[in-house]
Amino acid sequence: MATATINGTDIYFADSGGDGPALLFSHGFLMDHTMFDAQVEALSDEYRCVRWDERGFGATRAPADFTYWDSADDAIGLLDHLGIEQAVLIGMSQGGFLSLRAALAHPDRVRGIVLIDSAADVDDAETMEGYQGMLHVFREGSDDERAAVFQMVAGLILGDDELAATWIPKWEAIDREQLVTAGRALLGRDDVGGRVGEISCPILAVHGTADEAIAIDRAHALAAAADDHRGVVPVEGAAHAPNMTNAPEVNAALAEFLAGLG
Q1: What is the pLDDT of residues 82-104, one digit of tens each?
Q2: Dist CA 132 CA 112 (whole Å)
Q3: What's the rounded mean pLDDT across residues 140-154?
């Protein structure tokens, strides 16, 4: 891991190096750069794979409230720091939120986008209310209450007991205020669904069919609005993080999309 000060934030990142085309991996809420271990292992011989810890997670602290537009600028700032002119942005969930915004704000820097269980719209009122309750527990709940929420979230994100046993202790170690700050960015994000048509680069969606956090029909809605969408690849039976639970299928879809970029 290395660090770079970008937009007033110490961003931690990992860079596989090499002369291949650059890929920038952006993780989901509660996760960190290590969620893409399987993708880097599969792709780093041919591509320069850069991963980073976004504000509030992993080794990167959020110094203040932020939006996913700020995170998009962080992503492009990291490319600047590494001397990378253009990259394919691969984002899972909130990583996809920021990747779409990076393509809108910095179109010349984004060669393509892969959205893993992500969307351009915002959540419905019932879901938002549930997330507000989650943030309340993050801020003020007892350790037992937090553990219960993390167990529930692990079911939504991972749907895999073995992965949950690895990730829940990481979540329990996150500073409460960092969780709440990151949560405000999640709940406060704007709807960019009406702007997807402005994105000119190729987009691919890879989506778990059993995702209860972001249903696959939202990926299809984004695909219908995009100028150059290369399809929605369903990952049968997968929850919200198929790149971890169904890595071979996701890696194959990534390799095919990347090869098609020329």
Answers
A1: 999 999 999 999 999 999 999 99
A2: 33
A3: 93
Can you tell me the distance from the alpha carbon of 131 to that of 126, in angstroms, rounded to the nearest whole number? 9
Q: Which residues of 212-251 are buried (b: 16+ CB within 10 A; e: fewer)?
A: ebbbbebbbbbbebbeebbebbbbeebbbbbbbbbbebbb
CB-based contact 241:206 (threshold 8 Å)? no
Superfamily of domain 2-122+190-260: Alpha/Beta hydrolase fold, catalytic domain (3.40.50.1820)
- Do 220 and 124 meet the contact criterion of CB atoms below 8 Å apart? no
| pTM for the full predicted model | 0.97
Q: How far is CA 260 from CA 70, 89, 255, 257, in A?
A: 30, 15, 9, 5
Residue spans of the domains in the chain: they are 2-122+190-260
**What end-to-end distance do the CA atoms of the chain give, in Å?**
30
